[in-house]
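Retry 2 of 3 after timeout on previous attempt. Resubmitting structure tokens to design endpoint.
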């Protein structure tokens, strides 16, 4: 199936700079439906449950962990992505679509080709209404010949963060963490990406639609543990507040 192509801006922003690698090690989000979330990520996505209590779930996603905390009437909706091997996207597509409905990116097409990012992706809602993405980035050079299962997931590759002022928020986040603008994506007034091919903060203006849906982005708390420049960092996002919890 030929994917829908998004050409975008192919210029590398500040391509001559030496940039720190960014690896997302853990994302923690909230769910009002923890029991349903456990069933969805075990049965549909096929992730291994690493840890569980009455108040949280934690799944293995490659070298990352996906964590959900119990909430009540928060109705939180997030966008996040899994990195998968570039040569396995079609297998991943059929593996998920055989069990769950995928989201169209335009018309009936369900695979997007992001030429500027040298990546392809597909999307689906989870049981909470989160916009989940499987993205295959050619420049990660992560290939496998094994049949696709959840064990082929490389890591968590993106987390969406929502703010009223993208430019101001991006400057603050870069100053706090050292994570810079993604070289493949020119920032805009309502959208920016920070990080690299391995891990990205996707910064969206409040009310902007999460691609490929008509769902407006809203601010919900989350916590991200990540590594950049061989330094372990942990950041909590809560409305416009950015709290650095730890730096080792």
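Retry 2 succeeded. Sequence:
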């Amino acid at each position: 199936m030929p994917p829908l192509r998004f050409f975008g801006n192919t210029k590398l922003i500040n391509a001559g700079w030496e940039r720190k690698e960014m690896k997302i090690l853990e994302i923690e989000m909230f769910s009002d439906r923890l029991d349903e979330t456990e069933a969805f990520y075990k049965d549909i996505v096929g992730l291994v449950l690493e840890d569980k209590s009455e108040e949280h779930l934690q799944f293995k996603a490659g070298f990352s962990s996906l964590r959900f905390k119990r909430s009540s009437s928060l109705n939180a909706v997030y966008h996040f992505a899994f990195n998968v091997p570039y040569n396995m996207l079609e297998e991943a597509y059929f593996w998920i679509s055989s069990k769950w409905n995928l989201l169209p990116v335009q018309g009936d097409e369900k695979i997007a080709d992001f030429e500027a990012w040298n990546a392809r992706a597909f999307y689906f809602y989870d049981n909470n209404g989160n916009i989940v993405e499987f993205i295959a980035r050619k420049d990660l050079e992560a290939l496998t010949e094994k049949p696709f299962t959840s064990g082929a997931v490389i890591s968590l590759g993106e987390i969406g963060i929502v703010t009223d002022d993208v430019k101001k928020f991006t400057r603050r986040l870069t100053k706090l963490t050292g994570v810079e603008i993604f070289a493949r994506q020119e920032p805009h007034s309502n959208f920016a990406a920070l990080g690299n091919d391995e891990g990205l903060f996707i910064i969206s203006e409040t009310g902007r639609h999460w691609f490929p849906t008509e769902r407006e982005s809203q601010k919900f708390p989350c916590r991200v543990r990540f590594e950049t420049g061989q330094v372990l960092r942990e950041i909590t996002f809560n409305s416009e507040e950015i709290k650095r919890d730890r730096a080792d």
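Attempt log closed. The helical segments are 34-44, 89-97, 166-177.
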